[in-house]
Amino acid sequence: MIIEKSEKSKKEILTFEQNFINESINENLEFDNNVRIVDINNNDILAKDLFKNKSIVLYYSELHCNDCITAEINTIIKNKEKLDESFVLLAHYQNNRDLFVFNNEFQKKGLKKIKMYLLLDKGLNIPADKLNIPYYFCIDSTLRITNFFIPQKDKPKLSESYLINTSKNFMSYNN
């Protein structure tokens, strides 16, 4: 039993270390304005038009770990009252219609203030794309990615803390 806990603790520490490294690698990168994005009405939109104001973004692909996506959506639902229209879900689906299906599902779960967009490309052309897991970041009109965060499906308190503190700190900070 003690050995199992020790092994679990070692694995958790290694995960935290690797996430820290990956977060650092993806911090302060410039969002590619040529990335193809579609809004819920199937209109093409440029990143510079989407991110005119500060936003907190959760990016995920349907190809990512399904349990990881579900864990983050549940965290967002739990904290929906603390999030506003500055929160963006950016998702990649192979079938564009899935954006509308999932947007409707999220609306039914009370995520009415949150905007959802479809990323037509398979990623954001940043190193985190290789991780195949959802991730959060902040962005503003400079299109600079900051406050990069890689959630862990078995640690929802970390995601919740990220959302609450980033909403409070990043969104209130004046450029």
Relevant CATH superfamily: Glutaredoxin
Tell me the CATH architecture. Answer: 3-Layer(aba) Sandwich
- Using the coordinates shown, work out and report the CATH topology: Glutaredoxin
| Order of strands across the main sheet | 2-1-5-4-3-6-7
Integer count of domains: 1
Number of helices: 5
For the sheet with most strands, the description reads: 7 strands, mixed
Secondary-structure-based class equals alpha/beta
Percent helix, as a range, is 40-55%
CATH uppermost class: Alpha Beta
Which regions are unreliable across 5 or more consecutive residues at pLDDT < 50? Answer: none
Query: From the alpha-carbon coordinates, what is the Rg to the nearest angstrom?
Result: 16 Å
Which series of helices and strands comes N to C? HEEHEHEHEEEH
Describe the model.
This protein is an alpha/beta fold and 175 residues long. It has helices spanning 2-26, 47-50, 66-78, 97-108, 156-172, and strands at 37-38, 44-45, 55-61, 87-92, 115-119, 135-139, 146-149. It has one domain (2-172): 3-Layer(aba) Sandwich (Glutaredoxin), CATH 3.40.30. It has a seven-stranded mixed β-sheet. A hairpin with a 5-residue loop joins strand 1 (37-38) and strand 2. It starts with a helix and ends with a helix.
